[in-house]
Design a protein that fits this description.
alpha/beta; six-stranded mixed sheet; four-stranded antiparallel sheet; 20 helices
Length: 577
């Protein structure tokens, strides 16, 4: 609970006022039956109309006071719960933003979405319900028990049997319900992950005509969630009939015994009416407490899942950076005996003792077979991952000694998987520089060979892009992503196979613009097409996580068999084509 205290303190007045105002309603509920008993016992028995009107007026006034207390209590309860949830959701999202790729993978995107939405909603609902009933239910129960004993202690003794029995049953139900609700939330994670994957890759699904398969997968996940939900809510379903049965049996017992007392003349009719109402209030308050506790068991499961995220420390931070104020000035890069593995428990390394250096302003190509570690290598430069062994230095400083903000602001990356966001083309390009004016944006687009096709759209740079850029082609998407990176004016530019969907003529123009517009920028180009890197100042050839060749195209053709094989196989294909 200490973790969640900071979300309560800013709104402590709402957390206090909500229950206090609900007590006003409770006081009215406790006194109304007594006033009604007086009307029956005194006013009706003595045919005293003025007494009936006076007492009835008091009841009406008390009802209005109760209404004001109920409205105020509900208002503050809702405000406290919604504010608590909003702040918690903000911090949870901020923590996820700080996560490394490894942290996100350990939870799964679908699970994080569930925790940010459904789990926080569960906590919000139980806080709202708890503030409404936190004092109301115990207050009503205590007040009703006192009034019942005040009216007839011998008849009220029945509560001493009923309350412990119901309390024990409630605790048993909660003990059974908690693990079931936790299991249900995990099944919801799986369903959300499947939905996200299916919707994100809907074009692939349709192109392979796999709709039936996806519907089957969804049906299976949905059925599992249904079964988990039914198993969890059976507890709730069982609770209500049991409580109602106990209430009805107790009420019948009271009416039977009390009715005999009335017939014997030892208890007034009005007292029996009031006593019956108090018995119902006691049992209703127990039902309300049971509902709060049951919902709390579900919220506790959700809170534990949220705490898992909040307690997870990002494995990439700059808290211990010794040069946190340093800014990359040139863009010199050096890898010193670098090794890396995604799975630390395995001996297999994605990169194995890599060493090379790049002088600022150079264009360096990286080529090699699929899975040889090209993408992993460049992701170590902006610290998307950290090395297991060795050092990655930029301008002579280990990247771990920079602040993440300064380091990543100086590195422009165009990833293998090009991502655009919903909004206009201009909005997407300004991710590179929020303050860029239209001329700067257009200059970056021209350098990326994107300006012509952008202006061919009816609304030009104000054209709305669908989610993920669904209304532009693959080559257009790549060029927009390159323009976005160029607008950042980075000291280091990394292109990870980001011209694969662009024709060779356009790619050549992009490379030409790099030579003129980015003379002082260090450029790293990962490519599958050897023609994309042939003109580079230096080419690195990777094979199974090791550098097997380094030099210019001419030098590698003479000294590196792997490079020569790649060149000859691709050139033969072009000739054949």
């Amino acid at each position: 609970m200490k973790r969640y205290r900071k979300y309560v303190l800013p709104y402590w007045k709402y957390f206090v006022m909500g229950p206090i105002l609900m007590i006003v309603e409770v006081i009215g509920e406790v006194f109304l039956p007594a006033l009604m008993a007086n009307i029956i016992n005194v006013g009706a028995a003595n045919h005293d109309v003025s007494y009936i009107l006076m007492t009835g007026g008091m009841m009406i006034a008390l009802a209005f006071i109760m209404m004001a207390g109920g409205i105020g209590g509900n208002y503050f309860a809702v405000k406290a719960a919604v504010s608590f949830a909003a702040d918690l959701r903000r911090d949870l999202f901020a923590r996820v933003q700080d996560f490394s790729f490894h942290n996100i993978d350990s939870f799964s995107t679908g699970s994080l979405v569930t925790r940010l939405t459904n789990d926080i909603t569960q906590i919000q609902n139980v806080i709202m319900m708890g503030l409404k009933l936190f004092l109301r239910a115990p207050g009503m129960m205590i007040g009703a028990v006192i009034m019942a004993f005040a009216i007839n202690p011998s008849l009220a003794a029945i509560l001493l049997v009923v309350i412990p029995m119901l309390a024990a049953m409630i605790m048993l139900i909660i003990r059974i319900g908690f693990p079931r609700f936790d299991f249900m939330q995990k099944k919801l994670d799986l369903l959300n992950s499947g939905i996200r994957e299916a919707l994100t890759n809907v074009r692939v699904v349709k192109s392979f005509v796999r709709e039936d398969r996806e519907e089957q997968k969804f049906a299976e996940a949905n059925a599992q969630l249904k079964e988990a939900g039914l198993r969890a809510f059976k507890v709730v379903i069982f609770q209500m009939p049991v409580m109602m049965l106990a209430m009805n049996i107790t009420t019948l017992a009271v009416v039977w015994v009390g009715g005999n007392m009335v017939l014997a003349g030892t208890m007034p009719v009005g007292d029996l009416t009031a006593f019956t109402t108090y018995i119902v209030q006691v049992l209703m308050s127990l039902m309300m407490l049971a509902m709060v506790l049951l919902q709390s068991s579900r919220a506790v499961a959700s809170a534990r899942r949220i705490t898992e995220v909040l307690d997870t420390k990002p494995d990439l931070t700059d808290e211990d950076a010794s040069d946190a104020d340093a800014v990359i000035q040139k863009g010199d890069i050096e890898f010193r005996n670098v090794s890396f593995s995604y799975y630390k428990e395995r001996e297999e390394k994605v990169l194995d003792h890599i060493s090379f250096s790049i002088t600022h302003g150079e264009t360096v190509g990286i080529i090699g077979s699929t899975g040889c570690g090209k993408t992993t290598l460049v992701q170590l430069i902006p610290r998307l991952y950290d090395v297991d062994e060795g050092e990655v230095l930029v301008d002579g400083i280990d990247v771990r000694e920079y602040s993440l903000k300064h380091l990543r602001n100086s590195v422009g990356m165009v990833l293998q998987k090009n991502v655009l966001f919903s909004g206009t083309i201009l909005d997407n390009l300004r991710w590179g520089d929020e303050q860029a004016d239209p001329e700067q944006v257009r200059a970056a687009a021209q350098a990326a060979q994107a300006d012509d096709f952008i202006r061919s759209f009816e609304k030009g740079y104000d054209t709305e892009l669908g989610q993920g850029g669904v209304n532009v082609s693959g080559g257009q998407k790549q060029r927009l992503c390159i323009a976005r990176a160029l607008l950042k004016k980075p000291r280091i530019l990394i292109l990870d196979d980001s011209t694969s969907a662009v024709d060779t003529a356009t790619e050549a123009m992009i490379r030409r613009s790099f030579r003129t517009e980015l003379k002082d920028t260090t450029k790293i180009i990962i490519a599958q097409r050897i023609t994309s890197v042939m003109e580079a100042d230096k080419i690195l050839v990777l094979e199974e996580g090791r550098i097997v060749g380094e030099g210019s195209h001419r030098e590698l053709m003479a000294s590196c068999e792997t490079y020569r094989e790649i060149y000859e196989s691709q050139m033969d294909k072009e000739v054949t084509a």
